[in-house]
Amino acid sequence: MTATCVILDIGGVLEITPETGWVQRWEERLELPLGTVHERMRDVWRAGSVGSISEREVHDQVAARLGLDAPQVEAFMADLWEEYVGTPNEELIAYVRGLRGSCRLGILSNSFVGARERETKLYHFDELVEQIVYSHEIGIEKPDLRSFEAACASLNVRPENCLFIDDVAVNVEAARAAGMQAHLFEDNARTITRIAAHLDAGPLVPGCAPLG
After folding, report:
1. What share of the chain is helix, strand, coil (3-state, %, to 5)?
2. pTM of this structure
C-alpha cells in the first residue's frame, strides 16, 4: 500500500487522437444535417462507454438509426475506431516502459466497448502496465471519484502515492479530489519531468500533504 504509483489516461496521452472528420464525412455521404449522427447515436455512445450495450448491439443500432446496410455499418465503425485509437505516443510509451519495476503502473481510461481488444492488439498496453481500468468494464466514467478509487484498488496502492496523468482538466481536478496527485498532460517533456519528480519524492508518509 506504500508503493509509488503512476496511472495514465489513454486517449490524448498514450495515444495521439486528433479528430479525423469521419462523422462529418458520413453526414455528407448520407445527406444528413450537421450533428445528426451524434444526435441520433448519443445514448448509444453513452451506453457503450459504460458497458451497458454490446458491440453487436452498437452495430445493430447504427444500422437502424442511420439506415445503413451491413457493409456500411462495418465501414462506419472502422472509421470510428480509426479516430478512437489514433497513433501511439511513442516517446511517452517508451518512457513508461522504462519505469517498469521501479513503481506501480496503471491505466484509467474512459473507453468504449471493444476498446481493450483493439488497443491490446495495436499497442500492447497490457504489457506496458500492471492494470488497465476501462470505464466500459466497470460501468463508471471519469470524473466520477469512484473510477479513481477503482484504479487505486486494482493496484492496491494509496491514492496519495499515485500520480494521475490526463489531458482533460476536469479529470485532473477529480483525481485530486479523490486524494491523488495529478498532472494535466500538455506535452511529453513536462509530463516526463513531472513523473520523474513524483518518483524521486517516493511514497508519502501518512499525514504529509501531496504536491498536487
Report:
1. 55, 15, 35
2. 0.92
